[in-house]
Prior knowledge:
Blueprint: H1 2-26, H2 29-51
Helix pairs in contact: 1-2
Amino acid sequence: MKSRGNLSKLITFLVLCGFLILAVKQGNIIESLIFSVLILIFIAVKFIFNKI
């Protein structure tokens, strides 16, 4: 169970880094902020579902 949690954290971190790199390449700060908000919502939803 613990390894699964670590794996999901790693995947989330990799996705976050990927979006960050894409946003930097695009050079659009507003777009990167929107992506950051979407990722935070995704993490929050995942956290809530893990608690249930």
